[in-house]
Amino acid sequence: MSDSPERISLAGRLRNNFLTGLIICAPLAITIWLTFTFIDWADSWVTPYIPRRYDPQYYFNITIPGTGLLIAVVLITIIGFLGKNLIGRSIVKFGESILHRMPLIRSIYKSIKQIFETVLKEQSTSFKKCGLIEFPSPGMWALVFISGDAQGEIAAKLNADGEEMVGVFLPPTPVPTAGFLMFVPKSKIVMLDMTPEEGAKLLISGGLIAPDYKPIPGLPTAVLPAP
Asked: CA–CA separation, 198 vs 205, rounded Å?
């Protein structure tokens, strides 16, 4: 019975070493798996349409992962380059004019294009800041991503009393890909210094991985608004 504490200590060390190794290996393995899965998916879509004389696999007689993805990236880049000149813009406008005449397709195309333009626009301020709002009841605070000021009809109707409204995205834990879009008064939002990436880590980990925070000397800390 005298060596029981040593056995427990050894088991504890083995468990800690295993958990440490799991933390190191699991994200790496998942990242590699997702990367190769995406490459295989892109290859399965593009490779069948590549003429044999332009396919490197035809000459080397081996499967080269990423060939289809590389060709797709090159073609998309060329299309983007051509789409910036006068002739390219004319072709794009002509193609869009055809799509806009199709009742169902035009709605799908317009929605998807708007989403991509919003996400990929370099000057976009979407999801570049994090904040706190009182949710679901006063005294309880939830982390949100700032999507931008209210616009259009929403701004016209909500800003009628002079209070500026801001759109925020409230994601759940631990999967922040779904959530609620809400419009709240700007004065009710407590802005945070953490980046959206750090906020996502905080959500996914359930609050276990909090970003480091060092207050700047001389600057007052944020004061939460009174409920």
From this structure: 11
